[in-house]
Amino acid sequence: MYNNIINHEIESRITPETTQERAIIQHPEWQEGAMWGKPRYGHPEGKILYHIEEVLQNVEAIQPEAATRQALRFITLTHDNFKHKEHRGFPRDWSRHHAILARHFSEQFTDNQAILDVIELHDEAYYIWKMKYRIIRKSAVQQRLDKLLLRLGNNLQLFYLFFKCDTQTGDKNQKSIEWFEATVKDIDIVVF
After folding, report:
1. CA gap 10, 53 in Å, rounded
2. Torsion of CA 161, 51, 125, 25, to 10 degrees
3. Which residues does residue 43 pair with via DSSP β-bridges, in sequence order?
4. How crowded is the C-beta side of 177, counted as CA atoms within 13 Å?
């Protein structure tokens, strides 16, 4: 009975467009993560499922070409789904960060390195911005940004589009995306 309630809620909010998407949202680990969450800063919507729904709406709003749209949808479905399993102790175990866990989960559904890299790195621009403006570690900011840009290579635009779609949700601070758009020159900025 409980699984039927979960499936109903998921299917009322997300319509899978491919067999791959259907397999993801039917996976028990994915469903566990999607149903996790309470309202909090940055995510007043609560459950990860509601955040995914909002990011998917943003993907539609930017109207990307078909292959980019499909990649963005995949990234959206898995990027935050393992926050409930993330290590939050001190010192922090970054190998158990939700983005790393999401990448590992996603590897069973795709071998597309661009998609997997964006899933793994999806919060990196935010962390770099936070270093620059909140933690005041300016000496490390450019080095970390350069490392991110090098790793993304030709996938920078895909990363940016996802970062934009993800950041323009809930009550997230928009300063990080504004900084990224002003700082990184090799992106085509979208407005929606």
Report:
1. 10
2. -70
3. 40
4. 18
| Predicted confidence pLDDT, tens digits, the chain (192 residues) | 668 888 889 999 999 999 999 999 999 999 999 999 999 989 999 999 999 999 999 999 999 999 999 999 999 999 999 999 998 888 889 899 999 999 999 999 999 999 999 999 999 999 999 998 876 667 789 999 999 999 999 999 999 999 999 999 999 999 999 999 999 999 999 999
Amino acid making up residue 86: E
**How far is the C-alpha of 137 from the C-alpha of 146, rounded, in Å?**
15
Distance (Å, whole) CA 55 – CA 166: 6
Structure-block tokens of residue 170: 């809930």
What pTM, to 2 d.p., does this model score?
0.95
Q: Which residues contact 169 (CB under 8 A, 6 or more apart)?
A: 43, 45, 51, 54, 55, 58
Query: So where are the chain's domains?
Result: 2-183
According to DSSP H, which parts of the chain are helical? 2-13, 19-26, 28-34, 48-62, 66-78, 98-106, 113-121, 124-130, 138-152, 156-167, 175-183
Tokens of 163: 């970062």
Hey, is 43 helix, strand or coil? strand
CA–CA separation, 68 and 62 (whole Å): 11
172: Cβ contacts below 8 Å, ≥ 6 apart? 42
